[in-house]
Specification:
Radius of gyration: 17 Å
Structural class: alpha/beta
Strand order of the largest sheet: 5-6-7-3-8
Low-confidence stretches: none
Helix content: 25-40%
Distance between the termini: 34 Å
Mean pLDDT: 90
Shape: globular
Number of strands: 8
Length: 209
Amino acid sequence: MKLLKFEQITFGYKKDKTIFKDLSFEITQPIGKGFVIGLMGSSGSGKSTILKLILGIERNYSGKISVSPEAPVISYVPQEPVLFEHLTTLENAEYFNRISNYKSKFNRQLFNEIAAALQIDEVLKHSTSINEISGGQKQRISLLRALSIHPDILLLDEPLTGLDEEVKDQFLQTLAMLIQKCNLMVIYVTHHRKEAEFISDVILYLVKE
């Protein structure tokens, strides 16, 4: 069973400016089923900050954050794809197979299956430079890389930013299928109600006071 629990979290980037005060929520993923938590709220309400707290990037908070299983594998896909120009498209996608801390977690069979589902296997074969591919293809590469280590938790921060409507719809449908296939717990940050309602099992709204 996968669990994410925030207990009375108080946090601010500046001492005199608190983003969260006593924030509490608990999410439990049903056994044998992918589960998506949509995270919505206005700009500055703390959506991306919650992801940073889960990742451990921000640690100066009071309260308690609990995640099960212990020491989970967490993958993160930011708004803008973080890809390396000195690496080929395939090397970018296989990046975790090059990193000692993640090499043992890289799953070649899963990688190939997801590449086919995302319809980028031909791109991986024939495109040598990351600068040759479209924004939608770059986002698919980022998602493939994130899923290649079969994470316990997948964090998506506005993953459809900059994509046209047709690409968005296709991406969302494929993502929904992969979430169930890989039995993922996903935190999906978005400003768009339509996206959240399509992909999410439950939606959390952050409100600035």
